[in-house]
Amino acid sequence: MIMSAPQNSLQSSKSVNTYRTVPGLIYICRLIGKDSSVPRVLHKHTDRVEVVFIVKGGGKYLIGDKHYNANPGDVLIFNNNVVHDEITHTSDNSLIYSIGIDSQTWGKTLLKYEVITDFPPHIKCSDNFNLLVEYFNLLWNSESVDYMNSHAAFTELIELLALSSRDASYSNASDVNNVFGEKILNYIEENFQNEIFLEDIADEFDANLFYIIHEFKKFTGYPPKKYIILRRIGEAQSLLVSTKKSITEIANSVGYSNISNFNRIFKKVTGMAPSSYQNYLKKCIISRSGLFENH
């Protein structure tokens, strides 16, 4: 049974270990107020699991092929290689945390609790709300908290989520069984970074164009054309954060040969230019290049 760490072990204090890393924790992000309104559109992670904790506010999330409504006290899990979309409902007092966890660290912990094969993407954690707030706050403020306390909070956080998953409710998800829609989605995932037209999809499956649009929208909630745009911009958002590529290089790598067109679409989707988006994230994330870099 997971218990809260002893009170004296979670007190803020300065230590010579302040800047040691927390193994497995890649980054932590905190979005406050209107900062959380910037869309983080369709994307996936290949090296990590992302955990989102709603303290205040809420949102709609597409995780894989299911839609979820998230409220305060809810945790969203974006597993490795699962495409997801994040649309938050914001207010001046919104507060949302997210952490990136190395896939191997996550897997080893869940295997210990025998939940790794069926870990739910949406967990209602209202019973442990105050404890989760304590853990996330401590991790965010790790520059002023010693290493042992940060590591204890991180370990207990994963264990708490693993145990909470056993009682997780799936009732808030829309479940659509659509084999053909999934086939279309897989085709788009393999080709969205290249020049792709709806006619190409129809030819691939020897199907009527309108039937393609209908089935895909029924499966994902998006028309194919909009999904492709969001998937490209979502991938661009990831590259802007995780690489040192130029904006032109990123535009080309996600299917846009015209940089002006890319800039226009990126701003239309996210509300800001690519360069502004990079600067915006700098104030929201403590990354592995600093405090949480693995040795």
Can you put this structure into words, describing what you see?
- With 295 residues, the chain is an alpha+beta fold.
- It folds into two domains: 22-172, Jelly Rolls, CATH 2.60.120; 176-277, Arc Repressor Mutant, subunit A.
- Helix content is 41%, strand content 20%.
- The strands form two sheets. It has a six-stranded antiparallel β-sheet. A five-stranded antiparallel β-sheet has the order 2-7-4-5-10.
- α2 packs antiparallel against α3 and α4 (179-191) crosses α6.
- The protein starts with 24 loop residues before the first strand and ends in a 9-residue tail after the last strand.
- Keywords: Activator, DNA-binding, Transcription, Transcription regulation.
- It comes from Pantoea rwandensis.
- Pfam families: AraC_binding, HTH_18.
- Residues 182-280 form the HTH araC/xylS-type domain.
CATH class of the largest domain: Mainly Beta
The strands making up the biggest β-sheet line up spatially as 9-6-3-8-1-11
| Fourth-tier CATH superfamily name of the largest domain | Regulatory protein AraC
- Strand element count: 11
CATH topology of the largest domain: Jelly Rolls
Shape: globular
Instruction: Calculate Rg over CA atoms.
Output: 20 Å
Number of separate helices? 10
Would you tell me the structural class of the helices and strands?
alpha+beta
